[in-house]
């Protein structure tokens, strides 16, 4: 159980301690960078420390709720093997966990098995909600099967569960400005500057997010929501080999921690992708333009051009550079275009954080039905 929840660990690709909960190379708390950090002597890194007890408490509530609702795994032991176990008095299918024998009734009755994607694509989106004041902001994480195009998991940083003080998001007013998208190379560089200007690398300030006075639940720090998001995906799909993420350093940290075993064995790839797409219908080939290094970690990015379109790709692990040409954020791009045409979504700014989260989840189901039909017609 404890290894499933590791959050305080080295997060450096190539370090022997990557994702390990304990190591003789660790010392903590270390305040050298001005915040409590874990110091990994093997690679010299200082990942920020989390309050592990509060995180574990919230995460177990989060995983159990997801499991009870979806029926994809056991709410107690997270085992995935279940058997049908009769019906409840309302006539709804019950299931039993093969491992721990827990019996429960999933709220959502499964339409079909979910198949493990080859590549997962994850991006964030900021959407408005009505809190104590108007125009409060939710941080949304969307993960897609990058090849089939359907949504495989969606979460927001609103949680219905109680969350310890250290897990909660606090807007301090120094909100990161939107960056100029016209020059994609400069964009990547300025984004790295934003990470450096944070009080710690994972502490994004994305806008105000105060709930209504009577509202239950809490708004989480986006980094906590990200660890919760990828833990769910890791239980569903433990063997994912390719992860594509938008340019956000704590998404990198969460993915590499959650699938640490595969990354330690150099069995998985993680990529940052940034795009500037003005013509999404073109079939022209992508051309490689050159490489640049950016930011604190001096990561190497490659620039690609396709007519008016530009993309920047960065391997955060030992990814095969021949793959860079075919990688994109197309699945999320298509979804977001569709989402902004949905009336339920457009009017959601007047609704509570919990309600906006529900609407996003139900729209995701509609979208998946649409994608499923499109994929069937293509075959
Ligand atoms: Zn290390
Ligand atoms: Zn179980």
Order of helices and strands: EEHEEEEEEEHEHEHHEEEEHHH
Principal-axes shape call: globular
Mean pLDDT comes to 93
Helix content: 25-40%
Radius of gyration: 21 Å
Total count of domains: 3
Bound molecules: zinc ion
Instruction: Tell me the distance between the termini.
Output: 42 Å
- Give the strand content: 15-25%
Structural class: alpha+beta
Strand order of the largest sheet: 8-7-6-11-12-15-14-13
Folded structure, characterized:
This protein has 379 residues and is of the alpha+beta class. The chain has three domains: 1-49, no CATH class; 53-104, no CATH class; 119-378, no CATH class. It is 27% helix and 23% strand. It contains eight helices and 15 strands. The strands form four sheets. The chain has an eight-stranded mixed sheet, sandwiched between helices. Strands 3-4-5 form a three-stranded antiparallel sheet, with no helix packed on it. The protein has a two-stranded antiparallel ribbon with strand order 1-2. A hairpin with a 5-residue loop joins β3 and β4. The chain is globular and about 65 Å long. The protein starts with 25 loop residues before the first strand and ends with a helix. Bound molecules: zinc ion (2 copies).
């Amino acid at each position: 159980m404890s290894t499933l929840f590791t959050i305080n660990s080295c997060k450096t690709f190539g370090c022997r301690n990557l994702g390990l909960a304990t190591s003789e190379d660790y010392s903590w708390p270390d305040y050298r960078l001005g915040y409590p950090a874990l110091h990994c002597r093997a690679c010299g890194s200082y990942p920020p420390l989390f309050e592990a007890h509060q995180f574990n408490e919230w995460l177990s509530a989060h995983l159990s709720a997801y499991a009870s609702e979806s029926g994809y795994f056991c709410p107690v032991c997270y085992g995935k093997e279940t058997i049908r176990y009769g019906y409840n008095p309302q006539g709804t299918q019950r299931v039993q966990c093969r491992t721990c024998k827990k019996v429960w009734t999933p709220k959502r009755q499964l339409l079909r098995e979910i198949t493990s994607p080859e590549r997962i694509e994850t991006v964030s989106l900021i959407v408005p909600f009505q809190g104590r004041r108007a125009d409060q902001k939710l941080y949304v994480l969307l993960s897609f099967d990058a090849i089939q195009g359907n949504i495989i998991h969606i979460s927001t940083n609103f949680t219905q569960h109680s969350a310890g003080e250290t897990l909660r998001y606090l807007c301090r007013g120094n909100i990161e400005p939107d960056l100029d998208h016209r020059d994609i190379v400069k964009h990547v560089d300025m984004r790295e500057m934003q990470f450096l200007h944070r009080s710690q690398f994972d502490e994004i300030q994305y806008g105000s997010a105060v709930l209504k006075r009577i509202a239950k639940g809490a708004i989480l720090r986006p980094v906590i929501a990200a660890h919760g998001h990828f833990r769910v995906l890791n239980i569903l799909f433990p063997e994912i080999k390719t992860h594509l993420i938008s340019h956000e350093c704590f998404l990198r940290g969460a993915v590499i921690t959650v699938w640490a075993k595969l990354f330690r064995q150099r069995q998985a790839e993680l990529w940052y992708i940034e795009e500037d797409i003005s013509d999404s219908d073109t079939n022209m080939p992508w051309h490689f333009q050159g490489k640049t290094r950016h930011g604190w970690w001096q990561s190497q990015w490659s620039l690609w051009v396709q007519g008016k379109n530009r993309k920047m790709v960065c391997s955060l692990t030992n990814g095969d550079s021949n793959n860079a040409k075919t990688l994109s954020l197309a699945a999320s791009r298509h979804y977001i275009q569709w989402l902004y045409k949905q009336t339920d979504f457009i009017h959601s700014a007047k609704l509570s954080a919990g309600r906006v989260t529900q609407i996003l989840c139900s729209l995701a189901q509609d979208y998946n039905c649409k994608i499923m039909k499109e994929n069937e017609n293509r075959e």
